[in-house]
Design goal:
Largest sheet: none
Number of strands: 0
Helix content: over 70%
Order of helices and strands: H
Shape: rod-shaped
Number of helices: 1
Oligomer: single chain
Low-confidence stretches: none
Radius of gyration: 37 Å
Distance between the termini: 125 Å
Structural class: mainly alpha
Amino acid sequence: MFELYKTPLDYLYLVSSLSIGLVALFLVIALFNLICILRNARKVSEKAKDTIDLLNHYLWQPIKIMLMLVEKLKDVQFAAKARRHPKQ
């Protein structure tokens, strides 16, 4: 009968090749999972950016306009007081 493994070195080569193959398989699976995680993170960051843009457009812009109007009204009130009570 044909004996494939005659020496302990043959067994070492067999075990090392199997372990390298398993490590390579593990790395491929890990890389695939990393790609999926990064893809999901990109989608989440894009949605967060869209949400921030919406908040900026519908919330912050009106607040800025109101603050600008308040400043203008303060200027108008100051000018009206200055007209009523001119400095002597």
